[in-house]
């Protein structure tokens, strides 16, 4: 089964930026659509951005214009560039296929706070 390892999270002030990475142990091309999910404290995990192999992207309304999802199939890696971060973006961020096709990784914590 493909393993997913997310990284790049941390503590950042409101308005700051982070770049998340998701390294897969196998082919993400074969998964087709890949996505970033997040789970805030006390809330359910939600899909916030997705990208096809052809580069077509869809974002949750709350992220539009601030986050950019990208992928490098040759490196089996998914990215999420996060700009203009807000406290409400605080969550553990995960990657997986859309719909989910493999076990979840450990996620990476993003905390937006002054």
List the SSEs and their pairings.
Blueprint: E1 4-7, E2 10-12, E3 18-24, E4 34-39, E5 46-51, E6 57-59, E7 67-72, E8 77-82, E9 91-97, E10 108-112
Parallel strand pairs: 2-10
Antiparallel strand pairs: 1-3, 3-8, 4-5, 4-9, 5-6, 7-8, 9-10
Write structural notes for this entry.
The protein is an all-beta fold. 0% of the residues lie in helices and 46% in strands. The chain is built from no helices and 10 strands. The chain has a 6-stranded mixed β-sheet with strand order 2-10-9-4-5-6, with no helix packed on it. A 4-stranded antiparallel β-sheet has the order 1-3-8-7, with no helix packed on it. A hairpin with a 6-residue loop joins β4 and β5. The model has no long low-confidence stretch (mean pLDDT 96).
- Measure the end-to-end span: 39 Å
- Structural class, from secondary structure content? mainly beta
Portion in beta strands: over 45%
* Adjacency order of strands in the biggest sheet: 2-10-9-4-5-6
Name the helicity range: under 10%
Average pLDDT figure: 96
Q: Return the string of H and E elements.
A: EEEEEEEEEE
- Total DSSP helices: 0
Q: What does the oligomeric state look like here?
A: single chain
Over the alpha carbons, how many angstroms does the gyration radius reach?
13 Å
Low-confidence stretches: none
Number of strands: 10
Sheet with the most strands?
6 strands, mixed
Overall 3D form: globular
Quick take:
It is built from no helices and ten strands.
Distinctive features:
114 residues, 6-stranded mixed β-sheet, 4-stranded antiparallel β-sheet, globular
């Amino acid at each position: 089964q493909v393993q997913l390892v997310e990284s790049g999270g941390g503590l950042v002030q409101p308005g700051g930026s982070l770049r998340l990475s998701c390294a897969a142990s196998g082919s993400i091309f074969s998964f087709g659509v890949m996505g970033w999910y997040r789970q805030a404290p006390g809330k359910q995990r939600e899909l916030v951005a997705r990208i096809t192999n052809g580069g077509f992207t869809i974002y949750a309304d709350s992220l539009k214009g601030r986050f950019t999802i990208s992928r490098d199939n040759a490196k089996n890696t998914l990215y999420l560039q996060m700009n203009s971060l807000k406290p409400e973006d605080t969550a553990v961020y995960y990657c997986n296929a859309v719909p989910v096709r493999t076990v979840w990784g450990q996620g990476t914590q993003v905390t937006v706070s002054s």
